[in-house]
Amino acid sequence: MVSFLVGYGSTEGQTAKISERIVDVLEGRGHTAIAVSVDDVPPAATPAEFDAILVGSSIHLGKHAKNVYQFVRENREVLEDRPNAFFQVSLSSAVGDEARQAEAASYIDEFVEKTGWHPERIALFGGALRYSEYGFITRLMMKRIAKEATGDTDTSRDYEYTDWDEVEAFAADFASLVETGDVSADGETEGTEA
């Protein structure tokens, strides 16, 4: 049995929801796992207490969550010392065109450059539009962004773009990596492209 920490930064709740689904997959494989906002990692459960760590961040207005940057910078050595993965949740990842996919990838590049952390596994998931939870200004701004990205501008309803099969496959793949111990002595994942 392996212990997993899924630390996340979630602006409107979709990254938290994805983190909980990842925990479900990991626990379904017989492991212990906890999903917690990087702001709320309890002192008794520091990242160093876990065998493997996944970090997730939402993209809001083109930026990763600041608290995720801080968490990674403060725990980079611990992250690099054990199996690790990063997942990003954005509206750009919900759209199949090349320009939006390139935009989503550029967020990852910027994150890696700013933190110096090179995750062993990376996943990009579509997020959600929570019009029902936005204030007036945010609703207008998100409607404008959605018009270009997805065309979903009916603010009387919410939209979810997360491919849950993709989330579960990512979690299972990462668990398999950890279970097989397919990690070299320097912490690098064998045969992995990040």
Automatic annotation (TrEMBL):
Residues 4-169 form the Flavodoxin-like domain. It comes from the Archaea. One of its GO terms (biological process) is heme biosynthetic process. Pfam families: Flavodoxin_5. Gene3D superfamilies: 3.40.50.360. One of its GO terms (molecular function) is menaquinone-dependent protoporphyrinogen oxidase activity. PANTHER family: PROTOPORPHYRINOGEN IX DEHYDROGENASE [MENAQUINONE], PROTOPORPHYRINOGEN IX DEHYDROGENASE [QUINONE]. This is Protoporphyrinogen oxidase. It comes from Haloferax marinisediminis. The lineage of its organism: Archaea, Methanobacteriati, Methanobacteriota, Stenosarchaea group, Halobacteria.
